[in-house]
Each structure stands twice: as structure tokens, then as C-alpha cells.
Amino acid sequence: MSTSIASVRLGLVFVIIIMSALVSACAVSGGAAGSGHKNVEALVAERATAMWQLKLKGDFDGAYAFLSPSYRSAVSARQYRSAYKLGLWRAAEVKSVKCDQSDVCRVEVEIEFQYSAKGSGVVTGKQILPEVWRKDAGDWWNVPYQ
Fold this sequence. Notes:
By secondary structure, the chain is of the alpha+beta class. The protein has a single domain (about 40-145), classed as NTF2-like, domain 1 (Nuclear Transport Factor 2, Chain: A), CATH 3.10.450.100. About 45% of the residues lie in helices and about 30% in strands. It has helices at about 1-30, 35-55, 60-65, 70-75, 75-80, and strands at about 90-100, 105-115, 120-135, 140. Strands 1-2-3-4 form a four-stranded antiparallel β-sheet, with helices on one face. A hairpin with a 3-residue loop joins strand 2 and strand 3.
């Protein structure tokens, strides 16, 4: 009798291990078939939002870390920082993410800006900025100027 109980316990342990592996695989691959596309879009939206939150805070070094490896190999963090003026952007919101290819997503970010213009006073407005995000080395990166 104890041999069959041990066999049942061993079988249950085996089933639990297999189920855990399957659940982990689903989490890594993006879930059930057909839902991976939505999860990729959500992931890219998260990364775009995180990058813009850093820009809004003036943390351009942090935002630089979201740029593609090829862009970072051509443009230094110092060069990237010097291209931006702190305080220009007031808010940013990801409006849409479309991933038509498995490794490329197009993102639209609505930014709210404010600046002082000589002769015009303070200028405020909103604008949609298109962005390209590309999967490289297992992660999603912003590719400026595409």
C-alpha cells in the first residue's frame, strides 16, 4: 500500500512540475495563441510610457537606455541629452500601438508642450509624435527618426 501512495505522490509532483513549466512558458511566450500580439502591444506601450515619463522628469540618461543598441552605438548619451530642452514637454500619453510585423511596432504618442516664443509669449499645444519600436536581442527598443 505504501508503494502505491508513494507512486501517486510522485505522479502528483511530476504533474505539478509539468503544469508549472507550461504556465511559465505561456507567460514568457505571451499567453495563449492569438493573444501574443496584444501582449506585445501592451509591452511596447509600457516601454514607450516609461521612456516618456523619464523624459518628462528630465532623466534623459534613463530615456537613453530605451533607445536601440544601434542608435546608442552611433549617438552618445551626452549627445542625446544635449538635443533636448528640459521643461518643454508637460505630458505624454501613448495613444496607439500597432505591430504589423513580429519585430516592428508603430507607436503614436500625444505630447503636451509649452514654451516661450519671442513676440508670442507662452505657446502651448498638443501633438501626435510617431515612433518606431523594434525588437532586438530579445527586447523592444525605440528607434529614433524612422
